Amino acid sequence: MGLNQVSLEARHISLSYGSTEVLRDITLRIEPGEFFALLGPSGSGKSTLLRLIAGFNQHQRGELLIDGRDITGTPPHLRDVGMVFQNYALWPHMTVWDNVAFGLVERRESKDAITRKVGAALELVGLEQFARRRPNQLSGGQQQRVALARTVVIEPKLLLLDEPLSNLDKNLRVQMREELRNLQRTLGLTTIFVTHDQEEAMTTADRMAVLDKGVLQQVGPATELFDHPANRFVAGFVGTANLLDGSVDEVGSDAVTFQAKGIGALRVARSGAPPRTGPATMAFRPHTVDIRAGDAPLDAAHTWLHGRVESSEFLGELSRYRVRVGEVVVVANQPHHAGGALLRPGAEVRLGIEPTQVRFLVD
Ligand code: ADP
What we know:
By secondary structure, the chain is α+β, with helices and mostly antiparallel strands. Helices cover 23% and strands 36% of the residues. A six-stranded mixed beta sheet has the order 6-7-8-3-9-10, sandwiched between helices. Strands 13-12-11-14-20 form a five-stranded antiparallel beta sheet. A hairpin with a 2-residue loop joins strand 9 (207-212) and strand 10. The structure holds adenosine-5'-diphosphate. The site of adenosine-5'-diphosphate (ADP) has 10 residues, from helix 1.
């Protein structure tokens, strides 16, 4: 397996449809054997980038390299790239076996080789006993496994998956993302998958790239993007975040003064690298906010906001509060334990912000 692992590199790739720039100066390196996610909202350019790697789209500027070789002019069928489409694109009139065998027949492989390879691919995805069925006699998850088997049977160097789980219902999606992850580990194939679902990307990928409006925002493992988002967009898209507009007014030796729009001056104890003064967003996650009834004792280590509960949602393991603080709304999640009472709308509360969990973002 190790021999078959390749890297993929994009260097300053731009692609436009007419006057619309859909991908702008994308530079990215995906390591051999990596399971890599392209994450972004609808219309951010994820599929365009994936189709470009497959060879169905052409970029106007930049280079695309597999293992250091520029494949810009190479047609799709000579790229050693296998792609699983969102709708699976199985042939309805063919059996599972014939669907999986199709690419090998097209390549004029011997009967013996086809029998052996199709058998192995179906075994890999656990569908040996369904070989004689047609796609419409299979569940969504099984159809997806056929699509996967059909793609990996031709032994591509690079596996591309376009929203592989979006056609499945929620429970199956969770199960299939684990299967997908295991399959990728077994094969060791460099794999790139597109998703708009941050949870899907976080749970399956080794690393991910976040795209917005055709521009790469940040690349890294899930924990790095979650803990150290490069900008406001990433902070809000990977997980949820409170994002306070304002400016860093002063950086002292032990505290930062942040002028929060609609709230006022906040003193945040210094932690980590000092932020620059000037316009910024103060970001912190709802689950790191400590919420207390109004008269509770306060400690000096946190930054405390004073507010009023606007609404609450009981989600089982946690309660989510929307709290009005000045002119803004701050979201605080509180873990729930049996017997814990919900704070009511209108209740006065203090919100404790943990300084080590605060990020000052400049764009
Ligand atoms: P995503 O996969 O992130 O949802 P896409 O890559 O499909 O985004 O699309 C990115 C942008 O490119 C969108 O604004 C879309 O409308 C535009 N686009 C995609 N394909 C074409 C095309 N063939 N012609 C013109 N515009 C296109």
